[in-house]
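User: two proteins, same treatment. go.

Assistant:
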Amino acid sequence: MLRAAIGAAGAFVLVTVASVARPELAALEALPILLLMGLLAGVFARRLRVSAPASAAVAEAE
């Protein structure tokens, strides 16, 4: 999923450059941003789920 987020970030750069060259493509700039935000939310949620059991065990020990 992280690789997909990196790909979406690259697509954002390419779409932004293309929209500078061709202003009619400016409306497409939002698509890679939305995709990137969704993917990053998924990456962070997955990382939080993985680390949650460890932090819960620490809280119980205290």
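Protein 2:
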Amino acid sequence: MTMTRVPLHARPGRRAGTGVAARLDRVLSSRAAFVVVLVVFVLMGFGFAAVFHVHATAAPDERGHVWNILLYAERPLGAGPFLDRMDTSQLWMGELVRSPLYLYHYLMSFPARVALGLGLGYEQVVVVLRAVDVLWTALGLVALRSLFRGAGVPTSIGLLAVVATAFTGRFAWQAATVSYDGPAMAALFVFAAVAVRFVRGGRLRTLGWLVVAALAALLLKYSQAPFVLAGGFFAVLLRYRADGWTWLRQPVARTVRGARERPWATATLVVVGGVLAALAVERFGVNLLQFHAVNPSCTALHTRADCMDYAIFRRNYAATRAHELAEVAGTLPPFDPVAFLGSWVATYFKSLFFFWGASLPWQPEPAVVLAGAVAVLVAAVVAATQLRRVLANPALAWCAAVAGTYVFAVLCFNAATMVNLGQTYAFSGRYLLPAMPLAVAVVLVGVHSWLRRLPRRARVVLTVVVGVVLAALFVLYNPVSAFFPSARSAAWYSGWALEVLPHWLTGVDP
């Protein structure tokens, strides 16, 4: 039996409310509310794109991304996305000939060509590329809205989950940065939206689009594989639990009938899927066959001496050597899993909302961090009491399972880095952004379910309390509030920003 969509906030036989809460729910459920959120996010992203100093942004490797893009932009238009060689003088940008991350740089080379053709200078080209990334990331928010609607999440709660994502510091700052993270997450959210549709009754055509979305997400950022693999596995598992394998019966007949009924949609699926599959085979398949790795080491194609020009290779090589020498000398400190877990949680929480890392760090106010952490913990505990009811919706079960699996995979990767290198490389809140909206939606639905089951008077009071807490967190944690009070140095700001923004906002003397 196919699962039908039943809004989680609906009760059969009960008329919709007419009070303040009901009116607020209607406002938050409107398309206009989402459009306002989307427009504000885009404008805020454009603002940060122009305000950030080049290259003091949320991505420490923005400079490398820009130069990779310019490398493609300076090639003839008909040269295509594939490189056959690199000069050793270019290796400071990383190994690009067999890099699985080339697609983002190639696609972004087209707006770069336009900017260069208009005679814009380097910093202006960077701002243009940042603005394109903002628009690309905004499409991810549209996909999130589709995901939550397809999952049967009340529209107002879905909007709150979108707001929580869009106005998280790292998400907004990352969007205003030249980096594949924003576009890759947009593709990942499209994948999630299709997966939820499949879980709730999709058939072979939906499964086909799920594969296409997965290929797009992986070609933009292959390290999203844990999310994609978990998403595909749980989508098929939950679909099987609902209907068995009935959706797989007579696949040829159904495919032929579907192609006749919707020829253009079928042709689009075949063409787009074929192109992406070919790109995946050329990059992932050939790399695995020839180099036995999805992302070959620089030394697989160049000498170690030449690869030393690449900062990340040089860093990892030095860390590996130091770790090996310490292990031989017996001076390697033991791995403390409890201390590691505590440090991991604190680092990820703060870097998700506040400071960005070692290049231009800042420390947020401890009271603000504590208030946010307590609110998150309380909300998670409350939602856990309603977990059985929430997970009765297979789409929300998918969200919870994928988010949990992905976070655990990130934790294991970081733990392995600590054990093998003794370093905290890739410890950043940005790696949790793909799972964040899914987790937020599950928690908000759980809190909503808990409130509905309280006596009327307690429900009214606690609903007001929840609203006040959400408003306070938005004021304290939104990207603007989290940035300007701490970024009090000229190193953060572009020349334009220092000329236009007031001294009291930047803290920089004129």
